[in-house]
C-alpha cells in the first residue's frame, strides 16, 4: 500500500520535493535538495513519486522504480491546466505535483496526465537515431555547400559527377578535373574531407543501431516483409512508435 507520495520538481542544480502522507498532510518539504540520488536511496515500496517529463526523467524513473517505489511522469503542459485550476498563485510545483498524485493514488478522484515511458531498448534506439538524423543533416549541409561553391564557379554538376565527387574513393581525383578558383578548391577539399568523415560515422552508427535493435529481431523480421522496408527503417519505426498498444485506435497512431 502507498503510504507516502513525493512530488519532485527537478531543476539543473537542485530539486524541490514535497512529501504527503496518506492523509494528504505535508510531512516534509525540501526547497533545494542538491543530492537527488541520495534522496532516491531512501525510497521503497510504500512510496509513489511524480516527476515532470523533462531531460533525464526516464533515467530517474528507472532509479526510483529500482527501489520498489512507483513512479509517474506527467506531461507538464497538460498538468499546468490542472495546477492553474487549483491555485494560480502557488509557486511550488513540487507541492502541486504531490497534491495531484495524492488525489490520484489515494482518493482515485481523477487521473493524472502521464507520458508514455519507453523501454530501455527503445530509449537507446531513439538516442542513436537522434544522432543519426543529426549526421544526415550535416551530410546534406556539406553537400549543399559544395554544390553552391561549384555554382559560384559556373560549374554545373551532373548526377554522375556528383556521385564520383562525393565518394571518398574518387572525390579528390574528380575535383582535380574541375575548373574552379584556388580558394574554391581549398574550400571544396575541406568540405569533402569533413563529408567523408561524417559519412563514415553514419556507417558506424547504422551498424550500432542494428546491434542495439537485436532484442526486437522478431518484429523487424515481420516488418521487412513489407516491400521497401529495410532493417534500419523497421527499427526507426519501432523506436518511434514503441508499444503499439499505447494507441487506442489506428487513427490515433497514424496521427502520431
Contiguous uncertain segments of 5+ residues: none
Helix content, binned percent = 55-70%
Q: How many separate helices?
A: 11
N-to-C CA distance:
36 Å
- Order of strands, widest sheet: 3-2-1-4-5
- In total, the number of domains comes to 2
Q: Please count the beta strands (DSSP E, at least 2 residues each).
A: 5
Global shape: elongated
What is the string of SSEs from the N terminus onward? EEEHEHEHHHHHHHHH
Question: Average pLDDT, to the nearest integer?
Answer: 90
Gyration radius, rounded: 26 Å
The helix/strand class is alpha/beta
> Can you summarize the main beta sheet?
5 strands, mixed
SS strand fraction:
5-15%
Task: Summarize the structure in words.
With 256 residues, the protein is α/β, with parallel strands linked by helices. The chain folds into two domains: 4-107, 2-Layer Sandwich (Nucleotidyltransferase, domain 5); 120-255. Helices cover 56% and strands 13% of the residues. It has helices at 36-41, 57-66, 76-86, 93-107, 120-152, 159-165, 171-176, 182-212, 217-223, 231-241, 250-255; strands spanning 4-10, 15-21, 26-33, 47-52, 70-74. A five-stranded mixed sheet has the order 3-2-1-4-5. α5 packs across α10 (231-241). The chain is elongated and about 80 Å long. It starts with a strand and ends with a helix.
Helix-strand blueprint:
Blueprint: E1 4-10, E2 15-21, E3 26-33, H1 36-41, E4 47-52, H2 57-66, E5 70-74, H3 76-86, H4 93-107, H5 120-152, H6 159-165, H7 171-176, H8 182-212, H9 217-223, H10 231-241, H11 250-255
Parallel strand pairs: 1-4, 4-5
Antiparallel strand pairs: 1-2, 2-3
Helix pairs in contact: 5-8, 5-10, 9-10
